[in-house]
Amino acid sequence: xxxxxxxxxxxxxxxxxxxxxxxxxxxxxxxxxxxxxxxxxxxxxxxxxxxxxxxxxxxxxxxxxxxxxxxxxxxxxxxxxxxxxxxxxxxxxxxxxx
Length: 98
Prior knowledge:
Elements: E1 11-16, E2 25-31, H1 33-44, H2 53-59, H3 73-97
Antiparallel strand pairs: 1-2
């Protein structure tokens, strides 16, 4: 008997966070074509993307407009620091090319 491998459906969640918020908030989420559209918009606006399939699955289950649960604070904070570091590096390399 052969096991049929199901194609995984792409899932994406977009977060927003400002200093006056208590926690990051889900501002967009979806799967399949909707996920592709979210990623396309992120690319258009130079918004960094972090890939984590398990985290994306959890975040897409949270209603848009809701803050992430407290259990995810530490993980999301680490990702936001990583993304911030990548933004700084990108800005430096972009500036150096001019």
